[in-house]
Amino acid sequence: MKPKNNIQPDNSLWRYWRGLGGWNYYFLAKFGLLWFGYLNFHPLPNLVFMAFLLMPIPALRLHRWRHYVAIPVGIALFYYDTWLPGINSILSQGSQLTGFSAQYLLELVNRFINWQMIGAAFVMLIAYLFLSQWVRVTVFTVGALVWLNVLTIAGPAVSLLPATTTAATTTPAATAPAATGGDNAPTDSAPPTSANLTAYLNQFYDREKSRATAFPAALPADAQPFDLLVINICSLAWADMESINLQNHPLWSKMDIMFDNFNSATAYSGPAAIRLLRASCGQPSHHDLYQPVNQQCYLFDNLAKLGFKEQLMLDHSGVFGNFLKELREQGDLQAPLMSQAGIGNELASFDGEPIYNDLELLTRWLDQQQKAGDTRSATFFNIIPLHDGNRFVGSNKSADYQPRAQKLFDQLNTFLEQLEKSGRKVMVVIVPEHGAALVGDKMQMSGLRDIPSPNITHTPVGIKLVGMTAPHQGSPLQIKTPSSYLALSELVSRLVDGKAFTAPSVDWQALTQNLPQTPVISENDNAIVMQYQGKSYIRLNGGDWVPYPQ
């Protein structure tokens, strides 16, 4: 029997249009985080994901299975849009995480939770559930995401990626003189597009490869012996000291020279120590830190060739993170580790190992130098009492940073007084590895250092010459130009003959004039932070450059 009418069934896929449903909240939450600068948002992958969710599917069962598949994809995409460490970084640090105590891991988890953000997300959820009764939220969500993609068709998104206008000021590092190879200094006159920033970075690497400190082939006959003591402090930056009001501690006023704009170039201990030990050459990329390098790059090797005895001190075992191994293999520091036997410890590290008393170690070092007589030595001393997660012996709770920093500064101040009383000629260089990240920002929480932000890599570096005939008078001489390890190597080379210790007077301005300047570029394994035209930009995992959120 034929049908009584000519009405045909509607086979159009659009009759199965179901909208985004609860996924609207997923995208709205992202838009909120994006608005306040908490996301490294990727518009196109999000648009593709939205299209996958919207595509009409006739079979209700398949439609449900699509949502099941979308859940892990949505979680992965959300993680990809955050500033959190990349998977490669997590895997590379995985072996170190196993060394953390259970109490420290629990503390990190609690620190990661932002209750204010959770509260805001709850309010947004209630608002969405209320408004979705009368408003087709999918239309707004689709329109907003399409608009974000339109903004990126011709270039980066407004307010997130580099603008296409040139800033009014430029960093002085662009035209800074160098020890050698200064004629090819990178310029930052081009607009800060992603391509121009990458070109600037490559130009920086090329220039740094040609820079090196020129140490003398031999010391003059009238050279004066002295000791070089490099104190490498873990987890100390200007931002950390300011947050606990210790930037005016008497220790820093005792310095002869202070670098006010020193960049540690990394946020992790191993790479920082390698960069310091290779200070006699320009700044390499993170990758090149673990590649063979010219022997002239090793600061302590250059000193050893001039008769300085290499020495190594740690207030820890050096086992965690293969730190001591990296000093040997990448830093070419082969000196035996000074004995820690009989040294007391009030602190235990985050992995439960003892942290030995730094003043006791320094006093032992001074006693040994005094017994050695009138000799030359170069000592590398790495200390970690300020590292995140350290606790007082007998306690399971992480010790507050402020009392630990106060005690360390007091100990170093006391040691300098001991040095002055001893009459020994010593060049003391205090150079932190990186900051402690006491104050977090929009990109990473407090204590996290996967991204080498300016607050982490801007470190206080001080130099004190003890035992001089004509010591420096007044407040420390401030080096305000952007500097890094090459400037330290150059300064050591200018003082290596020791004559400044016995000279009737020292021209401090001439001593510190035209030290090598280094543009502010810092990097870890998967993140690079760079100053360009007075602003900071970041690149994660080789992607596009975006302004560092303030």
Automatic annotation (TrEMBL):
Query: Which superkingdom?
Result: Bacteria
Transmembrane annotation, as ranges: 20-38, 44-62, 69-92, 112-131, 138-161
UniProtKB keywords: Membrane, Transmembrane, Transmembrane helix
Q: Which Pfam families match?
A: CBP_BcsG (PF11658)
The coiled-coil segments of this chain are none
Q: What is this protein called?
A: Cellulose biosynthesis protein BcsG
Originating species: Serratia inhibens
| Taxonomic placement | Bacteria, Pseudomonadati, Pseudomonadota, Gammaproteobacteria, Enterobacterales
